[in-house]
Amino acid sequence: MYDPEKSRARRIKLGMTVAELAKRAGVSERSTFRYEAGEAVPSVDKFVRIAAALHVPFSSLLRQGEDNTDVYAALFGAEMARRRNASAHIISTDADARQAVEIDQLVTGIRRVQKGAGHVS
Hints:
Layout (H helix, E strand, L loop, with lengths): L3 H10 L4 H8 L3 H9 L6 H10 L15 H17 L8 H23 L5
Helix pairs in contact: 2-3, 2-4, 4-6, 5-6
């Protein structure tokens, strides 16, 4: 799951205020503060936007040693929906490009696991 300490440390390393991060991620300042304080957990969509605003892959903001299957499953579902609904996807920033590559790698990995378990033909 989301690690607020990693997010806060990265924000500080970049010299960003909570308000700047909130604006760049498109999240309210109050919510951003609550996420960093560990008082709330961002939705997967907000989590990915925060990671992009911090210029890191979302996986770098996950707690290590925990089962993060739920996060990956939600991202996989969101990416599949995006691919079904989008006629064209425009990558507007380097962070978007990194996120797209990371999600593509995730999708490929999940398909391999499913194929090995006999779920995908």
